[in-house]
Each structure stands twice: as C-alpha cells, then as structure tokens.
Design brief:
The structure holds 2 protein chains of 2 kinds. By secondary structure, chain A is of the alpha+beta class. Chain A has 14 helices and 28 strands. Chain B is 74% helix and 0% strand. Chain B has 8 helices and no strands. Classes of the chains: A alpha+beta, B mainly alpha. At the A-B interface, helix 8, strand 18, strand 22, strand 23 and helix 12 of A face helix 1, helix 2 and helix 3 of B.
Chain lengths: 628, 170
Amino acid sequence: MALLQISEPGQSAAPHQHHLAVGIDLGTTNSLVATLRSGEAETLVDATGESILPSVVRYRAVGEPPVVGKMAEDASVEDPLNTLSSIKRIIGKRVEELDEIAGQYPYTFAESDSSVPRIATIAGAVSPIEVSAEILSVLRQRAVETLGGELEGAVITVPAYFDDAQRQATKDAARLAGLKVLRLLNEPTAAAVAYGLDSQPEGIHAIYDFGGGTFDISILRLTKGVFEVLSTAGDAVLGGDDMDAGIARWMGEQMGVEALSAHSPALTRYLLSQARDAKERLTGRNETPLQLQFGELPEWSGDFTVAQMEQLIAPVADRTLRIVRRALRDAGVEKGEVSEVVLVGGSTRIPLVQRKVESLFERAPLQGIDPERVVAIGAAIQADILVGNKKEGGLLLLDVTPLSLGLEIMGGMSEVVIPRNTTIPVARAQEFTTFKDGQTAMSIHVLQGEREMVVDNRSLARFDLRGIPPMVAGAARIRVTFQVDADGLLSVSAREETSAVEAEIEVRPSYGLSDGEVEGMLKDSYRFAEADRDARRLREQQVEADRTLEALEAALEKDGATLLSSEERAAMEQLMDDLRAIAESGQAREIEKKIEYVNRESEFYAARRMDQSVQQAFSGQRIEDISK
Amino acid sequence: MDLTRHYFDLLGLPVDYSVDREKLSVNYRQLQQQFHPDRFVSAADQERRFSLQMASRINEGNRVLRDPIERAKYLLELQGVEMGTDGETLRDPQFLLEQMELRENLEEIQQDIEGLERFVEQIEQQIRQQGERFSTQWQESPEQARTTVQQMQFFQRLIHQAELLLDELI
C-alpha cells in the first residue's frame, strides 16, 4: 500500500499512546540525552544526578566493557593511549585525512587495510564508530531506565557542517548502540527549536554554535511555525580544542618544549588539561596562577592573564567571524536584519567570544538556556514531534545541505549537481555521455565540497555503471540522479537512458564501512542481546505490515467511498485480508513480498489521493493548466 | 507515482514570468507542512518514499519559480522550447564585447571586497532588466526569449565568478 496520511500529520500507529523518544547531543567534549516529559523538556541524569556525560571512553582489557564518562576522563592523563576523547573529530574521516588533527591527539592508529581509522587500544583496535556507539549506548541505557520503557527512537544532533560521511558514520554508531534514528538534526537548528523562537514574532535568527570541536553558524527564517534554514556554514575541525591547543603550546614553551608532538602523549594530555582548566578559570577572572610540572621538565609557575589568553585564542575566534560573514552573504541577509542571535556550545562561555559576536551583530546575543544543554533540549522537542506525540504536527524544520555535492568530470574537475544551502530533501539529475566509441562502462565519482578541482574536494564514493550498450561516443545518455534525504544523506543512482541499464548506490563513504561490516560489529558486540537475526527480521516485517495495513485502513475510511469504485474498494479489502493472514503466520521473506505486492496493487489509489491532496492544498486558488 | 503536475500548478501560481513571491512562500510552506518526511517518520516504507519524492519536488518547484533565470528557462521548457547551446548569443559581437569588458573589470577588482559586491549588484540589475525583456517576449516570440535567457546566463556566470572571488577574500 502506498498511501500518504495526508491529513493526519504527525499521527502514528497508536494515536492515543505516548511514544518514548529522546534527543541526544553527541558532542565532541560532552554528551547529553533529553526528553519531553509532561510538556517540559529535561535532560536526563545519571545515578549521581549529573546530566553531562563526558564523551570519553576508556578501554581497559580485551572482552571487558569500556568505562564511559567522568571516570574515563579522570584517567586520561594516567592512561592516555586507551582513553579516547574528542572522537567526534575523527568520525567519518579516512586515515589519510587525519594528519592535520592527529598531531593534537596522543593516539596510536593501528595498521589496517581499510581506510577506516582504527585506534590501537589495550582492548584491540577500535573505530570511531564503535567508540561513539559506546557513548550512545550509555545514554540509551540511561533513558530506558529513567523512562521505564523501550525507546521508539532518538533524534541525534550533528554539526550542520558535517559532511555525508560523517553523518552516515554517526547513523552507523547509533545503529550499533541499538538506537533507531528518527532524524539527524543539525545542531544550530536544534538550538533554534529549544529557544522556542517559534513562539516569537517572525524573523531572521542567527545561531552561533561554538563547541569543543566544531563550529557552526546557521541563519534561519521563522514564519508561522516553519523554520527555514537560509544558509549554514562552519568548520568541522574548529572548536574549543583548538583554543586549548594554542594555550597548551604556549605552556609547553614556558617549560622549554618546542614541539609537543616530539614528547610523550602524556605530556600533551597534561598540558591540554591544564590549558582547558586555565581557560575556564579565566572566565570571570583577570588572572590565574599556573604551576606546571611534568616529569623531568623544568617546572614553571607564574600568572596567566586574561590578556595573554585572549591573544592566544583570538585567531580561532576571528576565524569563526569570517565564517559568519560568509553565511550572511550566502543567506542574502545583512547583519542588521537579524532579530536574534543565539549562542550555543561551551566555547561561547568565553568572554572574548561573546564580545566579538556581540560586536559583529551589534546586538546582545540570547543565552538564556544553558549553552551546553540547549542542543539536546531542541533535539528532544523535535523527537517528540517526529514520533507522533503532537496532534497538530507542530513546528516544521526545513534544513539545507551544507556542502555542494557533485561529480568528477573530464580533466579532474568537479561539477556541482546540488549546490550548498539547497533546501532538503532534494533530488536533481545531470546527464553525461561516453567519450569513446563502444564504451560500455562509466566510472562515477561522487564528491562533496566547493572547490573546482576533484583533488580539493571530499571524495564520498565511487561506483561503476556497467552494461552500457556499445555506441558511438557521445550517443549514450547517462542520467545520474542525486537524492538528499531529510537527514542530509545522499543516494546516487545512474541510468543509461537509451537502454535502461541501472545502477544504484546508497553513498557509502569512500572510507569503506559497508553494511556487512556494521552487521558484523553488531553480531560481535557483547551488547547485542539478540543472537537470532531471523527473529529480528520477522518482527521488522510484521511491524512494516502493520503500518501498511493501518495506512490503507485510514485511507479507505477517509476517502475510499469517494475516490474508489466499489470493485476497487473490494480489491483493497482483499489485499488487506491477504496481508493480515501472511503477517500472522508467514516467514519474513513471504511477508516482505506480500507487502511489495500490496504496494504495487494499491499505487493507483495512492496517486489519486496524492493528486487530490495537492488539489486541496490551497482550496480554490488553483489555476487551470495553460500548457501541459 | 504521478509527479507530472508542473511547478506552477503544484505551487498554486498562474503560469507567468512575474511571480507573487509572498504567495509562493505561503503556498510552499503549506505544502511542506503536509508532505515533508518529518510528517512520515513512523509511516510505512512506501509512504516515506512518496513523501521524499514529493517534498523534493516541492523544493525544486520552489527553487525554480523563485529564481528569475530558472523560471524563465522553465517557462520555455513548458512551451517545448529547448535551451540548446549558446549559439545565437555567441554570434552577437556587441554582447560579447560587453561580456569581455565586464570580465576585465572583474579581474581588476578581484582583491577588492567592496568593488566585487558592487559588481554583483550591478550585474543583478542587468539580469533584472533582461528579465523584464523576457516577460514581453516569451509568449509571442519564444526564439527571442531564448536568446534573452542565454544572455541572462552569461551574466549569471559573471556573478558566480565574482562570488568565488569573494569566498576567497572573506
């Protein structure tokens, strides 16, 4: 069955039931989980009453579950190689891309054939996806225990500037942690939701999100319950960590160390920790005493002033302002047109940052909600809407893709198919042709980025379209379609039009984590309670059958009498009876095939309903076609 | 899956070059409130697929109708007029000369942020004027209208170049 529940937005299978859903902020430094309870958004706490979970995972021994959170963080200086933090900076990246940030972190990367980076730990080599899954798992457990039931899903936030590989990797991590992802939500958008800006008069808002590892700026317009992102820009490797690194380098110099990377990882860890502490102490104070001692190195003690620190961190802050100006330009908005500026992320607590933002926008920014919690809260609000708890559907978020998507064409050039800041979901096609007589295959290289040359952009995936019938060069018509979904994830399909030869690929990043590998991780994971994959498949098909049946029932009830003849209606009823029977007693594969059959047979009904819905959308305003 | 309703009809606007932007926005938001994937998160697979296709089409329709050049091309397409190559435009010496001068101009100001922004405004004004000419041509003389659109595209490329330069500087 193929029917859109077009007049019942937001309603799900059991309309009177409250569905448990959470919002998760998987941060570079800290993570949180939040939910909506009795209409109020709240972050969930652990046994000690703390809602913040440091995004730190410490591996102790083979076969033993790792320690996650504060206890892991406390061990980071004594055990730097097995205590992994800021993993968000690495997730979704290939080994070759790590050079620029790897120096900042004292990890040892294990030898591996695949381009997925794996960090060597005492418990074995782990990928960033597995590490992130450990963090998500703790949050999931916390939610299940606190709320007393299984979760229907989670909204997980990502930096707006995360590319396709980083998003896909985040989604993989969630799967590994046993979470159903309702939506990947951009962090600035989540913050806008949290501020209840939708209850304010309409306007244009800027969300300045400066966290531990990433920087995002989003310019949004709010009009009558619809948030439209006008532009988004950022830097996925620009954050508080970089400010800490600058301070740490200076501290190292005071101790006579020229290059930190030449020394032990433990020294790096120590100085980063000292740097972060000093930075935090200087919020609200003009100077702070420092006492640096490490191993054999000459001790150093002295005062560290705000002025000194600001000089060290100013370049990082200034880079964010450049990115803000670009976002304003992309949005076609003057800074004077911005009604509200919202500050998000721990790094916005720094007075220098606040001053610079206020100065750029010439207005005081909103900071009412704790900048560290605001993203999780926004995600929780969105989760509540998506899972169907709100009768009227509520706020609608129209986000954009942050980076241009394109293909490699002759000469090592990159041709844009979907430009950055295009509202998603979006589908666009481009036609190409063969350049040699008799060419039967075509290589498709999918790229993300703004640069003209392939080498300067991010390689997302490569695949081949084979089976093109041999033709004269230039005769083949190869249509490549890009589809970006509401999570910002790309699917690419290619089709040779004259012969209808097709290839499809869900863009699996060039870093190569395949479905099989994720399945493999699921099976091996000690957290994976269900040994029986078949039982899981059967249940999945039964749930899908239920949804299909409910949708058909609801549709028939609404307009079966008006849109269908009595024979057609009877046919639908028959389809439903057959499906019900199979769902109860059949195997997963049988149910799946029946669902496909029902969908095909009812597609004509769906088309009629769709058309009627579009017709009714602006009742009375539609103009007759002038041309077809 | 019937997706053949053209963009003007889908977005509830008359088929014309001049577009009521406010009405377009209102209709666009209303449509997405209904069809966006966020409304179908827990729905059956096929519903989600349809929603994705529909929301994508609504987004595309909005984008095309909102952009002066895309809208012009679309109107011609609806009339069965292919855009083709830049043929006629490339044979117009006056126009080509103007384009060359503008390109030289652009090279001179490539380090000058304010200069570049003024340049962009200037060219946008040109495109607007071309648009006005297009609106008088597209129904009666589609061939001429096509040439006008080709010229608009030349101007658009200049803006694109200027924006690439601005990206480097800002």
